[in-house]
Design goal:
By secondary structure, the protein is of the alpha/beta class. The protein is 35% helix and 26% strand. The strands form 2 sheets. The chain has a 9-stranded mixed beta sheet with strand order 6-5-1-9-10-11-12-13-14, with helices on both faces. Strands 2, 3, 4, 7 and 8 form a 5-stranded mixed beta sheet that branches. The N and C termini lie far apart (36 Å).
């Protein structure tokens, strides 16, 4: 791995995706034809964010348990192909996570059918702890709360910035509140802040989330085609999405996180980071699957220049 404080390390959902493009999404108890299938891309909130960061030129590492099954091997192969450091991965008995994703080509929407893994908690051995302590940012999601909280505590002790993808929620909302309180960078999807805060107004929900734990550096929510909302200098700011004809929105939010962190490590300018991440996420949507369409930094910067 590279010099201390120069990379992003992630702990969170890693899975193997089966992307199925369908003629049209059917009603319950109906049917449709699958026109294309692709099992070549990995998925998962943290996993895809790390791949995005790596493709944009930011060193990235993953800490995870993966099963000794075929899905675990595919997930690992995907990380290696993207240059993500896998020294923190341990192969253990159990089934790795897999997901079936149905893509509607009419509008690029996707419907997911995830299958959880049956893997034990990460023990966080000495090498994994050192990987977290040496990072610039620890990126988490809430899929496995036990793993996320353990990693967050290690990061806090080491003074490492904690980024949380507010997407997966626990049934016990107290756990969601505890994890969100650990975050320095809190970027959530369009549902998470409302469900966790129990507030109906977007600004009230964001302000509530910002009040959890120590003062946060970033608090925002992404809203797909509607762009994003962020609290900046105590005020609510809206950011539009870049309009593109989406082929598939799978992984768009995950890619946003990876791109935001990649830019954040270059310059801690929230507005610039949001614009950059929005552009990378939009470009990803031009191709099917959560990873194939992720641009490199040059492509992203040329796209941004074309939007001026």
């Amino acid at each position: 791995m590279t010099d201390r404080k120069a990379y992003v390390v992630g702990v969170g959902h890693c899975c193997q995706d089966l992307i199925c493009t369908v003629e049209a999404y059917p009603p319950e108890d109906g049917s449709t034809h699958i026109t294309a299938m692709d099992n070549s891309q990995g998925g998962g909130a943290v996993a895809t964010a790390l791949v995005a960061a790596a493709r944009l030129g930011t060193p990235a590492a993953v800490i995870a348990n993966l099963g000794t099954d075929g899905a675990g091997e595919s997930i690992l192969r995907g990380f290696r192909a993207e240059g993500v450091d896998v020294s923190g991965v341990r192969r253990v008995d159990g089934a790795s996570s897999q997901s079936i994703v149905m893509v509607n080509p009419a509008n690029g929407s996707r419907t997911k059918f995830p299958c959880r893994d049956s893997l034990p908690p990460i023990p966080f051995d000495e090498a994994q702890r050192a990987l977290i302590a040496g990072a610039a940012v620890l990126h988490l999601d809430g899929t496995r709360w036990d793993n996320a909280m353990a990693a967050a505590r290690i990061a806090k002790e080491a003074g490492v910035t904690i980024s949380l993808d507010g997407c997966s929620r626990q049934t016990d909302n107290e756990r969601n509140l505890q994890l969100a309180a650990m975050a320095d960078i809190l970027i959530m999807n369009a549902v998470y802040p409302f469900k966790v805060s129990r507030k109906d107004d977007p600004e009230e929900a964001l302000r509530f989330m910002a009040s959890l734990g120590a003062p946060k550096r970033v608090v925002m929510m992404t809203r797909g085609r509607e762009g994003s909302l962020a609290l900046i200098d105590g005020k609510l700011a809206a950011f539009p999405a870049f309009p593109v004809k989406a082929a598939d929105t799978t992984g768009a939010g995950d890619v946003f996180h990876g791109a935001f962190l990649s830019e954040w490590l270059k310059r801690e300018d929230i507005r610039a980071c949001i614009r950059f991440a929005s552009a990378v996420s939009a470009l990803k949507c031009l191709r099917t699957g959560g990873r194939r369409g992720i641009p490199d930094r040059g492509e992203a910067e040329r796209f941004l220049a074309s939007q001026l």
